Amino acid sequence: MKLKKLKPLTNSYLESIGFTWHTDLDNSSYIADKFVVLNESEAEKFYEATNELYDMFVEAAQFVIDNNLFHELDIPFNLVDIVKKSWEDDVHWHLYGRFDLAGGIDGKPIKLIEFNADTPTSLFEISIIQWAMLKFNGLDEASQFNSIYEALGDNFRRIITLNGDIEKFDEYYEKLNWKILFSSIKGNIEEEHTTKLLQHIASEVGFETEFAFVDEVIFSDDGIIKDDELFEFWFKLIPWEDIAIEEGELALRLTELIENKKVIIFNPAYTLLFQSKGIMKILWDLFPNHPLLLETSFEPLQSKKQVEKMCFGREGANVAIINSDNSLDIKTEGVYENFKPIYQEYVEFPKDEDGNSYQAGVFYAYEACGLGFRKGGKILDNMSKFVGHIVE
User: Fold this and answer.
1) How do the domains of the chain map onto residue ranges?
2) What's the CA gap between 317 and 267, in Å, rounded?
3) Coil, strand or helix: which one is 276?
4) What is the arithmetic mean of pLDDT over 121-129?
5) For every residue of 187-241, which 3-state class applies, written as one string?
6) What is the mean pLDDT of residues 97-122?
7) Residues 266, 269, 270, 275, CA torsion sign
8) How would you class 230 by CB atoms within 10 Å of its CB: exposed for 0-12, middle for 13-18, buried for 19 or more?
9) In whole angstroms, how large is the CA radius of gyration of the chain?
10) Which residues, 6 or more positions from 206, have their beta carbon under 8 angstroms from its beta carbon?
11) Residues β-bridged to residue 180
12) Predicted confidence (pLDDT) per residue in 213-230, tens digit
C-alpha cells in the first residue's frame, strides 16, 4: 500500500476548531501523519460497494421484520415495537451511518466488516480533519472521496422533503418551521462536539436548532421539551441498545411518543437492525457468496479462521480471532459479553511496512459520501489511529 507523509496539524489549531481528543492516553497523536494514497478507480469502488451494501441491508432488515427475527439479532424486546413503527413510516429518516470495510486498496477486494448505523464515530475526523490536513500541506483538499459535510446538509433537508427533491426545502420548511434538539451525554467531549457539528450543519441549511445534554431534556406526554420549548425532532448520540438496557422507562416513553406522532428521532430506532452484527448472518443467507460479504453464522464456522464478536459491541471490545484449528489467536475483554455472539470469516486487512492493519470506513448519508481509515493491530480498538486519504 502507498502512504504519503504530511505535516501534522498543531494541537492548538485542532482545539480551535473543537477537536480536543487529538492525543491518546499514551501521549501519541490520534491523527496519523501519513495518508493512504488511492487512485480514482479505488475511490469509485468504495462508493459503489457502499451503495450496494446499503440496499442489501434494507432488504435484510425487511426480511427480519417480515419473519419476526428480532430475537436472532439480539434486539432488546422493549425496542421491537419502536423499531417496527419507525420502519413503517417514511418520516423516520436515516441521517447517516458508517460502513467498516476490509480491503479496497493494494488490489484487495472490498469486504464488509460491519455497519455502524446508529451512532458512528469518526465523523469529525473524516469530514473536517483530513480536509484541513490537505489544505495545511498545500495540497488540493478536493483530492479525496469526501463530501460528508454537504451530504449531511442535503440529508437534513430530506427530513422535511422526504425524497430527493431537496430544492423544495425552504418552501416546505417555511410552512412547518419544525425544530431539532440535539443531545449527547454530559462528560464525553468527543460525542458532545460531534453532536454540535451535526447541529451546526442543520443550522446552516436552515433549521432552528438547540443543544441539551440528555439529562436536561424533558420527555413529556406532549413530546420532547427543553426550557419549555417543544421540539418536533430529536437527535441523540446515544446508542439505542443502551437506552433499552439502562433506561427502560425512557425506551417505553419514546415508543409512546413515536406511536402518538409526537416526535421524530434520529437516527431512527430501525437502525438498530443495521447496527446488530447479527444481520450479517441474515445477509449471508439472503446473498450467499456475495463478493462483498464474509461468511457469517450464529454458530462457529467449521475449519475456517474466524472472528467472534457480539451482536452489539464497540471499539474492538469482546472480540476474538480464532484459528482454523479452533485455537485462539487473540482476544479482547470488554463489557459486551452478555450479548449474543456471531462468527464471521476472517479476512486480512491491508498492512503497511510496519505491520499495522488498515480498515476503511465509508460514511453513508443517502449515498456513500466519505472515506477514512483506522490503523491498528489485528483487532482495531480505542487506541487505533485515524488515517486520512488522498486520491491521486
Assistant:
1) 295-346
2) 23
3) coil
4) 92
5) CCHHHHHHHHHHHHHHHHHCCEEEECCHHHCEEECCEEEECCEEECEEEECCCHH
6) 95
7) positive
8) middle
9) 21
10) 157, 169, 170, 173
11) 209, 233
12) 999 999 999 999 999 999
